[in-house]
Design goal:
It is a single chain. The chain is an alpha/beta fold. The strands form 2 sheets. Strands 2-1-3-4 form a 4-stranded parallel sheet, sandwiched between helices. It has a 4-stranded parallel sheet with strand order 6-5-7-8, sandwiched between helices. Helix content is 41%, strand content 16%. The longest helix is centred in the middle third of the chain and has 18 residues.
Length: 237
């Protein structure tokens, strides 16, 4: 029997890293829920590449036409290998969209999270550390550094890219260097989707202000939905 898409189009599969944090799992569940509200009638699922199950391959094994959106903020091993391999091996029609990247929606969400934390405006931060998870993939690191440069232009404040793992400088090192350079009010912009191990590292890095993870920010939901809508037509025929 041939699998068919739902009445409103192909399935959406949002693929995230996975976390042992109960709060992180709740946040990612809410991201999926909010996306589902905008995609009425679309079967929306969540899969993980590490720590949790199911993996994307297990869901895609049923052959249902699916748009796979990698819920990663930078390109790296998980996007290219884990998500990419699951999509290539899927028996049914599948399209993998770009990861979330540095799209305008994501940038607006980052800036708003900083504003909510009190890091912008006349009494805001005089320097910002863009705290990302980190990667051994050079293109991923370059992507985060380019985003930091873009944020610096928007905020008119020095912005340094730093990482919770696998790359340097660490967020703690970046905060310390800015402090040594004379900055008195340093904000850490949490460039993560959900609470968990990496978010805890960023919060403990010594900044005066740490913004919350992006989570189910409306701009993030809009970006996920846009990724789906821009790609579903290629397999909806």
């Amino acid at each position: 029997m041939t699998a068919t898409p739902g009445p409103a189009g192909p399935r959406l599969l949002l693929v995230a890293h996975g976390t042992r944090s109960a709060a992180g799992r709740r946040v990612l569940g809410r991201v999926l829920l909010e996306a589902r509200k905008q995609l009425v009638g679309v079967d929306c699922r969540l899969a993980w590449v590490d720590v949790q199950q199911p993996g994307p391959g297990k869901i895609l094994a049923d052959g249902v036409p699916t748009v796979v959106v990698p819920a990663f903020l930078a390109r790296g091993f998980h996007v290219v290998h884990d998500v990419g391999q699951a999509c290539r091996e899927a028996p049914g029609p599948v399209v993998q969209t770009p990861h979330l990247g540095a799209e305008p929606e994501l940038v607006r969400a980052l800036v708003q999270r900083l504003a909510e934390a009190g890091a912008t405006g006349a009494f805001g931060a005089d320097a910002v550390v863009l705290g990302a998870a980190g990667s051994s993939d050079a293109s991923s690191i370059a992507e985060t550094r380019a985003l930091a440069e873009h944020l610096a232009e928007l905020l008119r404040t020095p912005v340094t890219a730093a990482f919770a793992s696998a790359a340097s400088p660490t967020v703690t090192e970046a905060v310390s260097r800015l402090r040594a350079d004379g900055h008195r009010r340093i904000a850490v912009a949490t460039h993560l989707l959900a609470p968990g191990f990496f978010a805890d590292r960023l919060a403990a890095a010594g900044g005066n202000i740490t913004s919350p993870p992006l989570g189910a920010h409306p701009e993030i939901i809009d970006l996920i939905v846009r990724r789906y809508r821009e790609n579903y037509a290629s397999i909806a025929r």
